[in-house]
Amino acid sequence: MCKIGDIIGVKKYVGQDGKEIGFHYFIVVSDEGGKICGFNFSIVGTVMSSFKNEEQKRKKSKLKANIPIEETEFNLGTNKKKSGFIKADQLFYFDKSKTSYFVVGQVDGDVLLSLLERIGMLDESGKLTININNLIQS
After folding, report:
1. Residues 6+ away with beta carbon under 8 Å from 92
2. For the chain, what is the radius of gyration of the CA atoms?
3. Element housing 110 (H / E)
4. Is 6 in contact with 125 (CB distance < 8 Å)?
5. Could you tell me which residues come within 8 angstroms of residue 107 by beta carbon, excluding any fewer than 6 positions away?
6. What is the pTM of this model?
7. What is the pLDDT of residue 25?
8. Residue 68, Cβ density class (10 Å: 0-12 exposed, 13-18 middle, ≥19 buried)
9. Other beta carbons less than 10 A from residue 10's beta carbon
10. CA distances from 112 to 23, 29, 55, 62, 118 (A)
11. Which of 39, 58, 77, 114 is most buried, by the most CB atoms less than 10 A from its CB?
């Protein structure tokens, strides 16, 4: 089971372009089930990525849709961790029963609050992307 603020590792998922992508970390922003476009869901998450280099860090940190995150702001247990960013403008909907995932850690409460506020702001400005591909293709 997972809860809001958990970092989950999803073994494979479908991106916005419909292509399958391998393992990635997501931050759970909702663990309440529901329906969207007629499909059942039970997890909503945002992608968490690490910075590849300083140039990418500068570029990604400038975008309003991204929230930079430092190593001290999340816990991955014994897993390696490094600074990165959360893509707050992309919400991914998953069905727990059809998704291969596991909980690997949690984000700091302040980071979670900032993320939820940013998602609200992006939603109000019409800049939030909803991805239900993982419900359709599961």
Report:
1. 13, 26, 44, 45, 46, 47, 131, 134
2. 14
3. helix 109-124
4. no
5. 5, 7, 27, 69, 73, 74, 115
6. 0.90
7. 93
8. middle
9. 21
10. 22, 8, 26, 19, 10
11. 114
Written as six digits, the tokens of 60 are 């990604």
For 14-29, b/e burial (b = at least 16 CB within 10 A) is: beeeeeeeeebbbbbb
Q: Which of 93, 48, 39, 38 is nearest to 74 (CA)?
A: 48
Contact (CB, 8 A) for 105 and 74: yes
Mean pLDDT lowest for which of 41-45, 56-60, 132-136? 56-60
Residue 24: what residue type?
Answer: H
